[in-house]
Design brief:
The complex is a heterodimer of chains A (72) and B (132).
Chain A: E1 15-18, E2 21-27, E3 33-37, H1 42-49, E4 52-53, H2 56-63
Antiparallel strand pairs in A: 1-2, 2-3
Chain B: E1 4-5, E2 12-13, H1 16-22, H2 31-45, E3 51-54, E4 68-73, E5 85-93, E6 99-108, H3 119-128
Parallel strand pairs in B: 2-6
Antiparallel strand pairs in B: 1-3, 3-4, 4-5, 5-6
The chains are: A alpha+beta (72), B alpha+beta (132).
C-alpha cells in the first residue's frame, strides 16, 4: 500500500514541531528548501534570560590576543 | 600559532536550550555526542586544560563569529583527525552584568557529508538567525 504524503506549504524560516521536536525550513545548498532541527537565535534566548552579548571592548580585553586557525 | 590555555577566569555557561539543540539532537551512542558530553564534564570539573582559540569575524564559507571563542573536541587535541568536533562560545553578560562564555554551538569542524552543517555554520545561524 502506498504511503500517503502530507504536503506542507512552508516558507523559509517557518517552524514545525514533530513528536515534540522543532524543525525549521532553511535553504539548502542547491537553492531549494529543507527541514532541519531548529537553532534558536541567541537574541531570543538572551531576551528570555536577561542576558546580552558582551561589548567588543570586553572581548578584545579578554580574548584579543588568542590565536586563530583560519577555520571559522 | 599554538593555542593558549584558560585566557581568563570568565566562567563557562552551558544552558539547557543550546545543549538540547546542539548535542541532544544527536543519537546518544554517536561518537559526536559521547565526545561532547565527555568534554563538558571535563570543563565543568575544572580539571581540563582549555586550548582556546578565537573565532573569525570572516571565516571559511562566509561565517562571521565576532565575540566568539572555540575549543576543539576532544579537548587537548589539535588536528582535524584527532579533534573532529568543536564547541563555540560567545562572550556574554549574564543578568547580573557578569561576563560568561556562553555555549552556542557544537558540531563537526570539517564534515565529510555535504549535507552536514559545520559547527561554524551552526554558530553563525545561532548568532545571526540564518545560515551564511
Amino acid at each position: 500500500m502506498a504511503t500517503a504524503v502530507k504536503k506542507l506549504d512552508l516558507q523559509e524560516g517557518e517552524l514545525i514541531e514533530v513528536a515534540g521536536r522543532r524543525y525549521e525550513v532553511v535553504p539548502d545548498r542547491e537553492g531549494g528548501l529543507v527541514l532541519e532541527p531548529a537553532i534558536t537565535p541567541v537574541s531570543e534566548l538572551y531576551a528570555k534570560r536577561g542576558m546580552k552579548p558582551a561589548s567588543a571592548e570586553d572581548f578584545e580585553r579578554i580574548a584579543g590576543d588568542l590565536p586563530t586557525d583560519g577555520e571559522g | 600559532m599554538s593555542p593558549r590555555s584558560n585566557p581568563s577566569p570568565v566562567p563557562i555557561r552551558f544552558d539547557h536550550e543550546e545543549w538540547l539543540e546542539e548535542v541532544e539532537r544527536l543519537d546518544e551512542r554517536s561518537q559526536a555526542r559521547v565526545q561532547a558530553e565527555r568534554a563538558r564534564r571535563e570543563i565543568e570539573s575544572g580539571t581540563a586544560t582549555l586550548d582556546w582559540q578565537r573565532c573569525e569575524a570572516g571565516g571559511e564559507g562566509g561565517t562571521s563569529l565576532p565575540g566568539c571563542n572555540k575549543l576543539y573536541v576532544p579537548l587537548g587535541r589539535q588536528g582535524a583527525s584527532e579533534a573532529p568536533f568543536g564547541f563555540v562560545f560567545q562572550l556574554a553578560q549574564d543578568p547580573d552584568g557578569r561576563l560568561v562564555w556562553n555555549f552556542i554551538a557544537f558540531g563537526e569542524r570539517h564534515p565529510n557529508n555535504p549535507n552536514t552543517r559545520a559547527v561554524y555554520e551552526r554558530a553563525h545561524k545561532r548568532l545571526h538567525g540564518r545560515y551564511p
